[in-house]
Design goal:
The protein is built from 13 helices and twelve strands. The protein is of the alpha/beta class. The chain has a domain at 4-193 and 229-255 and 299-316: 3-Layer(aba) Sandwich (Rossmann fold). Helix 7 (201-210) runs parallel beside helix 9 (260-274). The protein is globular.
Length: 355
């Protein structure tokens, strides 16, 4: 009988939230495989120290023997694949790493899983699942009047990051169609919440606001994203893993389309309330417009009606409730932020935004 789940990328932002939520609601053993690149952080998992339900393994999804050994040793019933390079700006600056992790790494992971799955008893084979976590960015960019992305939208990735994720999605689909591997894919909108690495818009602006630095806004700030609180995303993944139809894709969104400028202005207003500046001026005074990034997609939006219709899932948080929880978390966890924002990351942000 298979009794364990393997989570890849489980020390990153979304992966660590998923592991924490899973263990909070289940006694099932979690094997957490993470390479611990710059965005992987064991401090995210500090509360699980000594918990026998969580086994952390530092390693690469591209290491076939390691992955296969973990699957066999722990009788894994499901793999949830979060492992990915995920920052568009970094993919523009250096795309090769994204191809290696997101495309080649996913291929090697699929090969190890296929070897393991092929050797299972028939009952275990039918119960096994490989859930691949992907992004709305594979669908390209929307015009203002376009309907949100549905699962039937064609793929039109516009950045090296989104192209690498699109390729990994296609590999997962092909391994189901060709080999019968029981896969599920989720494509999510922009996540935010606790443990978010502060190179992304929301945590970057919270950190910069509190440290008196400019809040960099690309271009005119009217790029629209659908914002999904990370714990809602985790609950959606659990639901798809539990009841999703094998071979299918489910879009996960928050029903919260917001321009980037409005998001930052909302952050500033919350900070004005929770931790006012010592000089009494509003944090919005720190907003600074910077040169737009190359190929910047104008709008993403997710149609998550299939997930609600077929599996009964809807997000629990509105943007207003989720963003306030997020700001409060960062205020309450400044030691985590300070540990993250030292060293090479700080140099990269300064070079990227030229502020």
């Amino acid at each position: 009988m298979l009794t364990t789940v393997l989570v890849t990328g489980g020390a990153g932002f979304i992966g660590s939230n998923f592991v924490l939520d899973w263990i909070a609601s289940s006694d099932e053993l979690v094997i957490n495989l993470d390479k611990l690149t710059y965005a992987g952080n064991l401090q995210n998992l500090e509360t699980l120290k000594g918990d026998k339900r969580h086994i952390f393994v530092q390693g690469d999804i591209g290491d076939h023997n390691l992955v296969l050994g973990l699957l066999r040793e722990h009788n894994v019933r499901a793999v949830i694949n979060f492992a990915a390079e995920s920052h568009v700006d970094r993919s523009i600056d250096g795309p090769e790493e994204f191809i290696q992790t997101n495309v080649v790494g996913t291929f090697h992971l699929l090969e190890a899983v296929r070897d393991y799955w092929g050797g299972l008893a028939e009952n275990d084979k039918s119960a096994f699942r490989f859930l691949h976590v992907s992004t709305d960015e594979v669908y390209g960019s929307l015009e203002k009047s376009d309907p949100p992305f549905a699962e039937t939208n064609r793929y039109e990735p516009n950045s090296p990051y989104s192209a690498s994720k699109a390729a990994s999605d296609h590999l997962v689909r092909a391994y189901h169609h060709t080999y019968g591997l029981p896969v599920l894919t989720t494509n999510c909108s922009n996540n935010y919440g606790p443990y978010h690495f502060p190179e992304k818009l929301i945590p970057l602006c919270i950190h910069n606001a509190l440290t008196g630095k400019p809040l960099p806004i690309y271009g005119d700030g009217q790029q629209v994203r659908d914002w999904l609180y990370v714990k809602d995303h985790c609950s959606a993944i659990r639901r798809v893993l539990e009841a999703g139809k094998v071979g299918e894709t489910y879009n996960v969104g928050g029903w919260n389309e917001k321009p980037n400028l409005e998001v930052v202005q909302t952050l500033c207003a919350i900070l004005d309330e929770l931790k006012p500046r010592s000089d009494g001026r509003p944090y919005a005074d720190q907003i600074t417009y910077v040169k737009d990034r190359l190929g910047h997609d104008r709008r993403y939006a997710i149609d998550a009606r299939r997930l609600e219709r077929e599996l009964g899932w809807r997000p629990a948080e509105t943007f207003e409730t989720g963003i306030k929880k997020t700001v409060q978390w960062y205020l309450d966890n400044q030691e985590w932020v300070n540990n993250i924002t030292s060293g090479a990351y700080r140099d990269w942000v300064e070079r990227q935004y030229l502020v």
